[in-house]
């Protein structure tokens, strides 16, 4: 019986000495007793003087370690809290609204991976559209981009994206294209009336670009995406000065540049 009473007294003494710990973001530790965790502030007191209550902003705290062993990690960036976006569409199907005017039709799928980040996969059909250059084009191109949606330059309490797919963004993009087209060769032997010969040629193009844009989401259903990009690229046709720009434009070995621009519309689900 004495052993049991001694054990209970030891346990009570140990638990009375055990205290909570507030671990700050800079690594400092406050050993205290936490009395309240509010929406903006954590209140605590020291066991040596429990009448004086102190407070610290939650944005300065990394975690709270309770004497019981429980640990609560503080949320300092509300943009990353997925609970705010639980009822929003995280996927989108888009079409490049202007690409048919330049000889191709582009379809895009976008999926959000986490708040502020998403990836895009695009498939373009060359020849499905108008043919202003009279190249009689046929082929396909693909694009892959990873988007980083911009956050504000400063934070306020409980700030978040109005929609998980909405906002200005930066996106590295990789693109490839393979196509056939008509190429005209001119024979100036009969100057000033040169003869022309039409040949069917193929072309492979590749590009790595940095894309900047802004995406709007209306009523969690309709989407508008406006962007422009530039970077490095190459195609044999670009090197010959033929200027193919289906899906994206590229130069040759002497001028290995690439560019892209577009206006996409789509649906969120």
What does this structure look like?
The chain has 269 residues and is mainly beta. The protein has two domains: 18-76, SH3 type barrels; 82-151 and 161-268, Porin, CATH 2.40.160. Helix content is 7%, strand content 55%. It has two helices and 15 strands. It has helices at residues 2-17, 236-239; strands spanning 20-24, 29-37, 41-46, 49-57, 61-65, 71-73, 91-96, 104-114, 117-126, 138-149, 167-187, 195-218, 222-235, 249-250, 257-268. The strands form two sheets. Strands 7-8-9-10-11-12-13-15 form an eight-stranded antiparallel β-barrel. A six-stranded antiparallel sheet has the order 4-3-2-1-5-6, with no helix packed on it. The longest helix has 16 residues, at 2-17. The N and C termini lie far apart (68 Å). Mean pLDDT is 88; it is low at 11-15.
| Largest sheet, strands/sense/barrel | 8 strands, antiparallel, barrel
Amino- and carboxy-terminal Cα gap: 68 Å
Q: How would you describe the oligomerization state of the chains in this entry?
A: single chain
Unreliable spans are: 11-15
Q: Order of strands across the widest beta sheet?
A: 7-8-9-10-11-12-13-15
| Beta-strand segment tally | 15
Provide tags for this entry:
8-stranded antiparallel β-barrel, Porin, 6-stranded antiparallel beta sheet, 2 helices
Brief account:
The strands form two sheets. The protein has an eight-stranded antiparallel beta barrel. A six-stranded antiparallel β-sheet has the order 4-3-2-1-5-6, with no helix packed on it. The chain has two helices and 15 strands. The chain has helices spanning 2-17, 236-239; strands at residues 20-24, 29-37, 41-46, 49-57, 61-65, 71-73, 91-96, 104-114, 117-126, 138-149, 167-187, 195-218, 222-235, 249-250, 257-268.
